[in-house]
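Design a sequence for this backbone.
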């Protein structure tokens, strides 16, 4: 009988432990992935539709749906579990209720969790007929016979989405409000296009000539150029003449510009931020004098006496809001503070507008009457 040499046994033991170690390493990697990311659009149209959910991980994952508000069962997934990177399809049923509905997608891989809040827009039903989508940011009221309300659209990721909406006064030649959703999908690497041009939604005769500006005033954006950098088309639309008002340089380039930067920071920390920017000639029951500027063709353009912003923040299925009110004057170069902050309900009283009207009444009342500057870092 021959005995195996000691060196052979040593080799066998080393090989055994090497195989065991590799097996354990592989199992450990599956059990505890080194990364987990999940991304999809946070805002969903009210119509039946679908969109991609992208998962990136080197482990096993599973998905659950939590319904926060509204009905349940309106979301379905092409798969609820798998391993490694995946592009899944989320499908949504139509929302025919006059209220938004909110759900949360929860992706889990071992101890790693990603939560994605989703908000599906509502419909407005008038006289038994379903109208166009009711968007959270669109104000109600404040119109007159010279006003037109319309929206501009762009394409992001092969999907048509709204860029912004406005109510424009063809006589006074300013927009009383410009409203838009704000979230990271609208931000990209496009620079400022400076593509000054008339708005194709309004007759040119009803717009100022802003190609060369207006003497004594800046061409003040209501939706800022820097809020729409995802594409040239998105940014170019912010340079439509209807989006401009005659704005004092000491206001436009200082406090107003600082607030625009603050709004972008708040957007980055929100699931979605809804923004309404407005220009006011007269407050409710006010007797303010309206002054006019003149463009290069002699057209008179109303100069706002006040400006405002109202913000509605959606974060983890909950809403809060804040407003800012300014006289059209210099405030210096500092950032906006609590001294210029107001509740949304206070700004409604000054403007006669009803903001965020499609929210459930209790939600709207709570968000619009409670104003907590510290919650916004002020």
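Sequence:
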């Amino acid at each position: 009988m021959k005995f195996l040499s000691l060196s052979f046994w040593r080799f066998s033991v080393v090989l055994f432990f090497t195989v065991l170690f590799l097996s354990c390493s592989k199992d450990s990697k599956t059990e505890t992935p080194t990364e987990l990311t999940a991304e999809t659009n946070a805002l969903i149209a009210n119509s039946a539709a679908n969109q991609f959910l992208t998962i990136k991980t080197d482990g096993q994952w599973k998905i659950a749906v939590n319904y926060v508000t509204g009905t349940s069962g309106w979301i379905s997934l092409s798969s609820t579990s798998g391993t490694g990177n995946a592009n899944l399809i989320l499908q949504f049923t139509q929302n025919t209720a006059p209220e938004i509905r909110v759900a949360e997608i929860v992706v889990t891989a071992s101890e790693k969790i990603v939560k994605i809040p989703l908000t599906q827009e509502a419909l407005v039903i008038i006289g038994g007929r379903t109208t166009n989508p009711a968007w959270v940011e669109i104000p109600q009221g404040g119109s007159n016979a010279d006003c037109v309300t319309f929206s501009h659209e762009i394409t992001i990721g092969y999907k048509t989405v709204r860029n912004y909406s406005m109510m424009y006064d063809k006589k006074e030649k300013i927009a009383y409000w410009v409203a838009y959703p704000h979230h990271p999908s609208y931000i990209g690497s496009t620079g400022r296009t400076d593509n000054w041009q008339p708005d194709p939604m309004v007759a040119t005769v009803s717009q100022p000539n802003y190609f060369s500006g207006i003497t004594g005033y800046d061409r003040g954006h209501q939706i800022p150029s820097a809020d729409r950098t995802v594409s040239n088309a998105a940014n170019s639309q912010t340079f439509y003449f209807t989006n401009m008002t005659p704005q004092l340089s000491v206001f436009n380039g200082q406090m107003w510009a600082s607030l625009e930067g603050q709004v972008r920071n708040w957007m980055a920390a929100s699931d979605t931020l809804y923004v309404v920017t407005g220009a006011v000639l007269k407050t409710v029951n006010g007797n303010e004098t309206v002054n006019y500027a003149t463009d290069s063709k002699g057209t008179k353009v109303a100069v706002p006496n006040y400006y405002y912003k109202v913000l509605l923040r959606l974060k983890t299925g909950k809403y809060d809001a804040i407003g800012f009110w300014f006289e059209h004057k210099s405030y210096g170069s500092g950032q906006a503070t609590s001294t210029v902050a107001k509740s949304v309900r206070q700004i409604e009283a000054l403007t006669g507008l009803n903001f965020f009207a499609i929210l459930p009444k209790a939600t709207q009342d709570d968000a619009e009457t409670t104003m907590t500057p510290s919650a916004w870092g002020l």
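Residues 135-376 form a domain with the Extracellular Endonuclease; Chain A fold (CATH 3.40.570.10).
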